[in-house]
Design brief:
Layout: E1 7-11, E2 14-18, E3 31-34, H1 39-48, E4 54-58, H2 64-73, E5 78-81, H3 89-94, E6 100-102, H4 115-125, E7 130-133, E8 136-139, E9 147-152, E10 157-162, H5 165-172, E11 177-181, H6 194-203, E12 208-211, H7 217-226, E13 231-234, H8 249-258
Helix pairs in contact: 1-2
């Protein structure tokens, strides 16, 4: 069964919900929500409700202190991503992260996948503590079939890795889980990317968390149905604790308990 996995997105040291496609180095992103509460408030809430397996994502610089605070409030309960490399991964595990999430460091500045780096960080932390982030954008194909290209650097740059069942199989030996943000619908509350969720569910050999566009309990149920219960889901901007109106946090906690 699909489970709800919570998140704490950090930008400029604050808990925020941002329209993913607007993250840029040269301009301020579109913000759906900026919390007056500290990261520890959210992490403590997740801990009290037994919501393990969520993630803390540092969206750019200036978020390290906030991330440390969140992890300290829920030791061993949340994963950490954003600027992770083989050099700092162990530090974040020591700060209380259950896993480290890796994306951009696996690629060159030009977006070319560097397999030696994946082996390096796997050797540094172990397969069981590593999550590979395959957050992506839709790209056009001559055939007209849907395709998704992994995006790096806060989803600004496309890489040479296309998500497919073969890609997932090739990477599976290095990771405990995958995290996939659908960057084109992230923060828009316009519904999930059904075709991407279906692809992830068809493969279904490791735990996968999907994020992007979930706006109602119907979307959560759709992830469960389309993926045959093999893909978990994160809800952000639509959630009431993030200022949203589409879903109640307590409803999602109950959903997990029913499973």
């Amino acid at each position: 069964m699909t489970k709800f996995r919570p998140c704490i997105d950090l930008h400029d040291g604050q808990v925020k919900q941002i329209v993913g496609g607007t993250l840029r180095d040269d301009a301020s992103p579109v913000e759906n929500f900026v919390s007056s509460r500290p990261p520890s408030w959210f992490a403590s809430k997740y801990a009290a409700d037994g919501l393990t397996g969520g993630h803390v994502i540092k969206l750019g610089p200036g978020n390290d202190d906030a991330a440390v605070e969140a992890l300290a409030a829920f030791p061993g309960g949340m994963q950490i991503g954003g600027g992770i490399s083989s050099e700092n991964a162990r530090y974040w595990l020591d700060c209380g992260a259950s896993h480290v999430i890796i994306t951009s460091w696996l690629f060159s500045a030009d977006g070319i996948f560097l397999p030696d780096r994946l082996k390096e960080i796997r050797d540094a932390v172990g397969t069981e503590r590593l999550v590979i982030d395959l957050s992506c954008r839709r790209v056009a194909q001559n055939s007209g079939a849907p395709a998704w290209c992994v995006a790096m650097n806060r989803w600004q740059k496309l890489t040479n890795v296309v998500i497919s069942e073969q890609t997932l199989s090739d990477l599976a030996e290095f990771a405990a889980e995958f995290l996939v943000h659908a960057a084109d619908v992230e923060g828009l509350c316009g519904g999930i990317d059904h075709e991407l969720v279906a692809l992830l569910g068809r493969w279904g050999q490791l735990p996968i968390t999907y994020a992007g566009g979930a706006a109602s309990m119907e979307d959560v149920q759709s992830v469960d149905a389309v993926s045959l219960g093999k893909v978990d889901v994160t809800v952000g901007s639509a959630l009431d604790i993030f200022g949203g109106h589409g879903m109640r946090y307590d409803e999602l906690v109950d959903w997990n308990r029913q499973g």
